[in-house]
Write a structure and sequence with these properties.
Distance between the termini: 27 Å
Protein name: N-acetyltransferase domain-containing protein
Oligomer: single chain
Number of domains: 2
Radius of gyration: 21 Å
InterPro entries: Acyl_CoA_acyltransferase, GNAT_dom
Organism: Streptomyces albiflavescens
CATH superfamily of the largest domain: Gcn5-related N-acetyltransferase (GNAT)
GO molecular function: acyltransferase activity, transferring groups other than amino-acyl groups
Strand order of the largest sheet: 1-2-3-4-5-12-6-11-10-9-8-7
Number of strands: 12
Length: 304
Amino acid sequence: MTEFSILGDNTEWQKDFERRLRAAYTASGLGAAAVEPMLEGVRAGIGDWTVAEITDAGTRVGYVAVVVADDNGALAGRIGDLRVDALHADRGHEQAARDWAEGWCAERGARRLDIRLIEPAGELFDGYRVRGQLRMRRVSSPPQPLDGVTARPMTQAEYPEWLASEKVAYVGDIVRAGALSPEEAMRKSDRDFAKLIPEGLATPDNTFLVLEAAGERIGTGWLKHGYLPGATYGYSLHIQEQHRGKGYGRAAMVAGEQATLAAGDSALMFTVWGGNEVAMNLYTSAGYQVVEESRSLGLPRSAA
């Protein structure tokens, strides 16, 4: 029978958790210098987590960590970790731990439960909606540009229209992924853009591109260099709707990879929002690996 005991001392669990995180991030292709900031981001919230030891007939078989916190005015739960040792896997402990975490968070008022997956979880979280994926590809040599597609710096005159369009697209991605309501997403969009590019085109370590084909504008790109040591983050590589289906999506990624190398970085990262299967398939075909996947479930489960 699977049982759960809240730990008073999380030291042993945290060491094991960080070891597993480091191994998973490294396996995804992140360099050692980039792994450490990722771990620091996780450590920042660990102190608020409640960690339970999973036992079976008095034997520890794994851990589950949970937390409930305010998220834009509503309580949301999170499964920070759910791990069953390989020796005890596939005996129902994983499902029991998931159900325990859902109940624990629901009892404390959470109406949504999130989880970040860094390793394959089989069918355990199939009922959870994919909210987004962090994808990454190492770029070791300049990619060959696609015929007829060029990238140039965005002009100051083009920036206001681009910014307005990006905000609208960002809101749409958040709402489609089921993360926030339209009103909450709009507020988040305003906050995030003000924080990320406070100086507009002049914001340091950012590249803003306009993609063209046959002299016609077909899309735009926005990249942040040094997002992690050696890694550029692509906030946006966008192909206008009337030009989609012509192979320009891959051309935009090539432009992003070229800008990554030009800035001195060796890896390019993107977040793909849930519900955007076209982009997910494109990134997969281009060799971008999943570093993390975020999923969520409405609580209580019967109301999901």
